[in-house]
Amino acid sequence: xxxxxxxxxxxxxxxxxxxxxxxxxxxxxNGHLPGQVRVDGLPLALRxxxxxxxxxxxxxxxxxxxxxxxxDVRLPPESELPAEQHALEAAEAALSAVxxxxxxxxxxxxxxxxxxxxWPAQRKGHPPREAPLTAMLSLxxxxxxxxxxxxxxxxxxxxxxxxxxxxxELRRRxxxxxxxxxxxxxxxxxxxALLTLSGPIAAQGxxxxxxxxxxxxxxxxxxxxxxxxxxxxxxTLRMRAAVIQRTGEDWTGVRLAVSTASLERRAEVPELKSxxxxxSQPPPARSxxxxxxxxxxxxxxxxxxxxxxxxxxxxxxxxxxMAPMYEEPVPETDDDGYxxxxxxxxxxxxxxxxxxxxxxxxxxPPPPPMAAPKSSGAFLGGSxxxxxxxxxxxxxxxxxxxxxxxSARGGGGMDRMRNKKRAVMEESLEDAPMADLLSADExxxxxxxxxxxxxxxxxxxxxxxxxxxxxxxxxxxxxxLRPRPALMSQAMLSFTSVNVQVEVVRLEAxxxxxxxxxxxxTPPTWSVPPRDSARHFxxxxxxxxxxxxxxxxxxxxxxxLTVPLEFKAEYVCVPSVEPRVFRTVRLDNASPHPLLAGPVxxxxxxxxxxxxxxxxxxxxxxxxxGLGVEEALQVARNTRFEEATGGMFGNSTVLTHHVSVEVAxxxxxxxxxxxxxxxxxxxxxxxxxxxxxxxxVPPWQKATPLPGEDAVEGERVWRVSVPAGEKRSMKxxxxxxxxxxxxxxxGNRRT
Length: 751
Known about the structure:
By secondary structure, the protein is of the alpha+beta class. 21% of the residues lie in helices and 30% in strands.
């Protein structure tokens, strides 16, 4: 097997997760390509079910026949470890040395402080001894001198200990800030892929293959950069992608693409069933299903003769006074409900053993198991075949008066559990149609009954990657494929390829948890996840140049593409609410790409202006983007209100509103301004109210809201162009007529 190096060429970042593509070249040796190759260095957060491989260039007919995931453990040399790791280890060693010296000095200080003069006990009949003053003074002077020196050393070592602790904390933070691709562990665990090739292995030229796999721990959100001149007449909008990833490998010099599609969503083409008009016909067999070959049990004849047939044990007559204390043990069943014939065989041959075996009568061994059914023996329509006949037959083979010691059965509690399980199994077979079907299946006629009952193989029997061959010790399943238990993961199946004692499952789980931690990182301000702003479509954006995204769990901005837009500058003012003019830009998306919602950094001339949220803008749509207040445009609004009675008998009230607006342009260029006013709107239920527009100079129009903007009832808009350094005046008059017995809610004055 040849280990080939690979290069990460392209990465597509989805809403959650990424799809990576690696390429490698196979060169022939002695005119032949290798039959098996191994690609190492894959990230540990790789999803094993996403591995795909194909031949891009090479001899005609060369195919990838098999692809298996496995693990790769590396022990890197010292030269490959990062410099930060060496600095961390040096800081740890320095701190340990200083701590040892400090503890030694503190122990010596404690020992010196314990040096005090002791007085011997006074003996009876003898006078007290004279105190040795000279010795006491010498001891005190020695202790003071030594303590002074040791305490000076303690102060110096405490300072060194603080410095070493700070240095160690600094080095640890430096290591934590490293990319997750630069592992500092002495033993590194990676994923690997085993490829088996088939076809014309003999070749003269190179073959180029690509390997695709999905990884967890990657996200992206859209951001934009809008550059406008001072005139607001044209501009450039560039789309950027803020990407964060902790996949375990750095993306260096890759072709980056981002997509709004979900990486977990299945995109299989549904299987449409045809409808036939005419004579009824049985449904065709599903593609991929094949009944077991005839004569399958003949392959296991030698196995049954070797493992099932056993010499008859020596039967001993049970003693008359002894009463049976235990029931006959029931064969254990596996997860699929099939009896374990091996354990039952061992219990059946117990008794008559040499070396003083207990004198317990045992029956003859059970007869060899019956021939397994000719059907598949796997799931049928979502249900499992029950081993009713094999279990009941084995129990009936033993006389009820035979007993066995507890050591052969594993305790009475286990027997009770087995008997309870057997009772549950027998109760579940009360359904007559299914019991008849299973009985007929054991006799070899299950295929006809299944076809008559309309049962089809379950969907999991067509997922051949998850099927495994049953053991020969299971007579009802041997020689047939069945689904692998769900608890057996790909990581557990790959234990055999790891020769180093590494906790693979724990490390793999830690890698996935570490990778998924990017989902909790706060995105940039005004950012919207692409799945929330993509509406009902999915889009993919390719970067114009190669990009670098390290695996450090931080946001990195990658330029994607320049979006062709049509810009139209417009100043907006609502003087009745705010007497200030706001700058806006109307964006018409003339590109085939949708613009997702996200923050846009606006640069006006050479000056950064602001960051504003941009709503989702589909192809051909128009949106308005606010750019803040324009101080060079000033607006003044004056109102006048008149109330009078009208009508032939004075039975109505006439409310006249006069509004005048003046705009002054202090910009060095003309400005197009939209000034909004609002007149009264009469609901349909009030037929006796009327609103009439009397005089409007210049004429205004009804407002047409852009997509995403709310319509305001009764809104009118003046659109005027004011030359540089000039003023424009507008005025409007409208009349509201209502019955004299009524009044507007909140007062008649509405200006």
